[in-house]
Amino acid sequence: MKNTLLPSVLVSLLLLVGCANQTSTPISNSPNIVIIYMDDLGYGELGAYGATELKTPNMDRLANGGLRFTQGHASSATCTPSRFALLTGMYPWKNKRAKVLPGSASLIIDTTMVTIPKVLKSKGYTTGIVGKWHLGLGSGPINWNEPISPGPNELGFDSSYILAATQDRVPTVYIEDGLVVGLDPLDPIEVNYKENFDGEPTALSNPELLKLNWYDGHNNSIVNGIPRIGFMKGGEKAKWVDEDMADHFLFKAQEFVKLNKEKPFFLYYALQQPHVPRTPHPRFVGSTTMGARGDVIVEADWMIGEFLKTLEDEGLMENTLIIFTSDNGPVVNDGYADLSEELLGDHKPAGVLRGGKYSMFEAGTRVPFVTYWKGVISPGVSEALISQIDLLNSLASLVGSEQTPTDSKNLMDTFLGKSDLERESIVLEASTKTILKKGDWVLIPPYKGPAFYKMVRIESANSDAYQLYNIKEDVGQKNDLSKQMPEKLQEMIEEYQSAVATK
C-alpha cells in the first residue's frame, strides 16, 4: 500500500531533524531506509561524478535526483574497517581487529555495541541485510555445518542473507540467518586459511582447471574455475555460481521489500561489485569496452535500477530514504589477470582525485555519496564534509532515538539538504594508518613503507615526512605545502595528535 508523507508531517519531520547532535522526538510516519553499499566503486565511476566512458543511468538517477555530496567519505580505504564504522558509528582505527579479514574470522563487532539496525529496530523497523558482510562470524573456530552465531542477526538484523567475506575468499557459499544455504550434511564444509586439504586442487597444482588467471596470492582453492584466497573442502551443492551472484542478491533484496512493505523497514543492500573476481552474468559481458570491471559496474547499475522499480511498483518511493555510497576507493589490478587495466581506456576510476583503494591519498576514502528521498530531498550538490560514520546518529535522530556517544555526528539536516552543517574534521584510515582532514586541509603523517603499491599500481602516500595539502585549491594533491606553510603544518599536527590520542 502506498505510504505518502502529508505536507504537515513533512514540515514536522524537517523541524524535528533541525539541530545537529540533539535528540528528536519520533516522527509519526517513519520512512523506510535503504543503504545501497558498493564495493570498490571509485569517485569517478558515475556519470554524475564526471565519468564519460561508463554509462550508469540508475546510479545517476539517484545522484541527479537527490543530494550529491562531493566531500563524502568512507571511514577507511579498505572494506572491513569501513563496514565496521558504517554500522557502529565508531572509528575503525579504535578497534585493532577492524582490518581486512579472512573468511574464517570471528565477529569483530561486540554484540553489546549500538548499531544502525539495533537503533532502527528499537523504533519498530524490520531490519535486513542482503549481500557482502566481511565483519567476521562466530566467536571462535567456525563450524560451517551448524548454526553460526553471533553474526548479523545478533547485531540487530531481523534477517540476513550474506556472503561471509568477499567473493575471492572461501567459503564460497551463501549464509541465511546463520545457516549455510543448500548444504548437504553428507558433504560437510571445511575451511582452512593456512594449509590445503589432501588432494584438493589449487591454482598452483592444477592450473588447467582455471577459467580466470591469478596473480598476487589468489592461488588457493579453485571454485567454478576461479582461484580463491584460502582453502575449502566439501559443500559442493551449497557453492554459489559467481555469474549469478548479482541477480541472486537483487532477488533477495526485492523479496525483503515485498515481504516488509506494510511497516517501516531498513535494508542494508551490500552489492559485491566491482570487487574481484569480476564475474558479470553473460548478458552483461561486452556491455563496455573496459572488460570485466566495466561490465560489472554496468551490471550493478542495472541491478539498482531493478531494485528502484520494485520500490516504485510497491508504492514506496515517496516514503523511502535511499543512501548510496561505496566502502572505499577504486582499484583496477587486484589479484586477477582480467585485463581491467589494459582495457581502461580514458576512464578514470578515481576521477580528479589522487590514489585509490589502500591509499592515504584522497581517492582512498572520498567516494560517491548520495542521499535520495523523492519529494523530500531536493536535487542538488553539497560540498559539506561528511562521513559514513555519521549515519548512525543521523538516522537515530531521524527516527527519534537517543544519540549514542560514539564518533558519529548527527548531520541529518545536511543529509536532507536542509543545512550546510558539516564535520569540522575527520580522522581517516588506510591499512591501519591514519590521516587528518580538516576543512580544506589534509595532513598525512610520516609512515614507513613503499611509496607505491606495485601489485595494484596505486600510490600509498607513505613518506618519511609530514605532507600537507589544500584540497580545495589542489584537489589532485600535487602540491605538498608542508615546507611552505610551517605554521599551518604545526597547527594540523597538533590537531591530529589530539584527535588520535585515544588510539
Helix-strand blueprint:
Layout: H1 7-16, E1 32-38, H2 57-65, E2 67-69, E3 72-73, H3 79-88, H4 116-121, E4 126-132, E5 159-163, E6 174-176, E7 179-180, E8 190-192, E9 222-223, E10 226-227, E11 231-233, H5 245-259, E12 265-270, H6 291-313, E13 320-326, E14 369-372, E15 380-382, E16 386-387, H7 391-398, H8 412-415, E17 425-430, E18 433-438, E19 441-444, E20 452-453, E21 458-459, E22 467-470, H9 486-499
Parallel strand pairs: 1-12, 1-13, 2-15, 3-16, 4-5, 4-12
Antiparallel strand pairs: 2-14, 5-6, 6-7, 8-11, 9-10, 13-14, 17-18, 18-19, 19-22, 20-21
Structural commentary:
It contains 9 helices and 22 strands. It is globular, with a radius of gyration of 22 Å. The protein folds into 2 domains: 19-188 and 239-423, Alkaline Phosphatase, subunit A (3-Layer(aba) Sandwich), CATH 3.40.720.10; 427-499, 2-Layer Sandwich (Arylsulfatase, C-terminal domain), CATH 3.30.1120.10. Mean pLDDT is 94; it is low at 1-28. It is of the alpha/beta class and 503 residues long. It has a 10-stranded mixed β-sheet with strand order 7-6-5-4-12-1-13-14-2-15. Helix 5 runs parallel beside helix 6 (291-313). A hairpin with a 2-residue loop joins strand 17 (425-430) and strand 18. It has helices at residues 7-16, 57-65, 79-88, 116-121, 245-259, 291-313, 391-398, 412-415, 486-499, and strands at 32-38, 67-69, 72-73, 126-132, 159-163, 174-176, 179-180, 190-192, 222-223, 226-227, 231-233, 265-270, 320-326, 369-372, 380-382, 386-387, 425-430, 433-438, 441-444, 452-453, 458-459, 467-470.
